[in-house]
Design a protein that fits this description.
By secondary structure, the protein is an alpha/beta fold. The chain contains 9 helices and 39 strands.
Length: about 450
């Protein structure tokens, strides 16, 4: 078995931020969380040790195995601290600022018969990664980019990815032999592996997929890594679903999208959202932590922590808030907001309405401008609307209130008491027409001119 050590104690000065570099968000979680989660899924890795500064340690979850590096003395010092507490004789070491390293890469390192190993790659562009010299698969020298002296060294094509494998004793016993003979006056893990290369031999493993080793030192780097990360997630979804414009679409890593669903431009799917088959989502939609059935249509809307059964239509310009459950074939139209409510099958709420803390039955029609007044200043109160109810436009429902099955309300009513089955609820002043009033009014005004 192996222990994994994540080196996350660096300051990250080039980020120019009060937030530690590796705590900035990539996708939907901090940079350092990506490696932490990936390493926990690798067979053969028993524990993941996070070596971080005191500031970062306070931001990590309680369940994380954290070792604090009080002073930023470099990557070799961080590896030494992690190896000193590791349970296993074999350790995988990785820099925290390369969050996209694949599970398969770690598995290859773990399964290798070599005890001392480092991963290298070739970038198709100039980078600030250290260069690697090796012969016949054995490391000869790693040179940090800050210590490159001439053009010849800068032209070395192979770069150090920041992923290593060693014996625990190599790190614990080798660290005291290091010096700070480098531009940053720190203990480099590269110096430690140079020492191991001379003493015991270190094998080099070349990975052609360079994108997984992109590092983050600046906000520009974060943007580049984000693009690669987003593309990975989109390609996974596009195994079964269609994404019309990947450049304007974001899909989170825990999102599931069913077969033959079409995602239109400017759509963002976040959290643990699950979308069924044959849906059309977008354009201009944001969905977070929702469960959506098959054959649904959603456009120009925002949905959060809601459940939609099959064949539900939402939008344009609707807001579906947490706790909402829309049953099959419900229709939610433009400028409608629904919060913590159940809406029955085939019910229509097509225009300009607010429904909160309500239970709405089947085959009900809620007219334009209907409002549930659910908050009395102290408590949220329920509104119960039965099956086959017709609510006239501009109705105000003062909760707690109930409208029984097959009841109607007149347009413009304020309803504060139960409306019985088959009854028409009217809660407005009676209209009075004053004949000739306009002529008298005009005459009075003209006399005063």
């Amino acid at each position: 078995m192996h222990s994994a050590i994540v080196l996350g104690g660096g300051v990250g000065k080039r980020f120019n931020s009060k937030v530690p570099k590796i705590m900035h968000i990539l996708g939907e979680k901090p940079i350092i969380y990506h490696l932490w989660h990936t390493l926990q899924t690798v067979e053969g890795i028993e524990e993941v040790i996070m070596v971080t500064s005191p500031q970062i340690a306070e931001l990590l979850p309680d369940r994380a195995n954290v070792v604090i590096q009080d002073e930023p003395l470099g990557t070799a010092h961080a590896a030494f601290l992690g190896a000193s507490v590791a349970k296993n004789d074999n350790v995988i070491i990785v820099n925290a600022d390369i969050p996209l390293v694949r599970k398969e890469t770690f598995s290859t390192m773990v399964e290798s018969s070599y005890s001392r190993l480092m991963a290298v790659t070739r970038f198709p562009f100039e980078s600030d990664f250290g260069r690697v010299r090796f012969v016949d698969g054995l490391l000869r020298q790693i040179v940090e980019v800050s210590d490159l002296r001439g053009l010849r060294e800068k032209e070395i094509p192979f770069v150090n990815t920041g992923v290593y494998k060693a014996r625990k004793e190599d790190i614990v016993n080798g660290f005291p032999l290091l010096g700070k003979s480098n531009a940053k006056n720190e203990y480099y893990i590269t110096d430690l592996f140079n020492l191991l290369a001379e003493d015991k031999g270190v094998h080099v493993l070349l990975f052609e997929d360079w994108s997984q080793f992109l590092g983050i030192n600046t906000r520009q780097d974060l943007a580049r890594v984000s693009r690669v990360y987003r593309q990975r997630l989109l390609e996974r979804v596009m195994q079964e679903a269609t994404i019309v414009d990947p450049e304007s679409t974001y899909v989170g890593e825990n999102v599931k999208v069913g077969r033959d669903t079409i995602i239109l431009p400017n759509t963002t799917l976040l959290g643990s959202t699950e979308i069924g088959e044959d849906c059309v989502i977008g354009p201009n939609v944001e969905i977070r932590d929702c469960v959506i059935g098959s054959k649904c249509e959603i456009k120009f809307s925002v949905l959060e922590e809601a459940t939609l059964e099959d064949s539900v239509v939402v939008g344009p310009f609707a807001r579906i808030r947490p706790g909402t459950y829309l049953k099959s074939s419900a229709r939610i139209g433009n400028f409608v907001e629904i919060k913590k409510s159940v809406v029955g099958s085939r019910t229509k709420i097509n225009h300009l309405s607010y429904v909160g803390d309500a239970e709405v039955g089947e085959d009900t029609n809620i007219g334009a401008g209907t409002i549930t007044c659910n908050y009395d200043g102290y408590n949220k109160n329920p509104t119960i609307i039965g099956n086959r109810v017709f609510i006239g436009s501009d109705t105000i429902l003062v909760a707690p209130v109930e409208l029984e099955d097959d009841s109607f309300t007149a347009a413009g009513s304020v309803i504060s008491e139960k409306v019985p089955k088959y009854a028409l609820g009217i809660g407005r002043a009676m209209q009075v027409n004053k004949e000739g009033w306009v002529l008298k009014y005009r005459k009075k005004k003209e006399m005063n001119q």
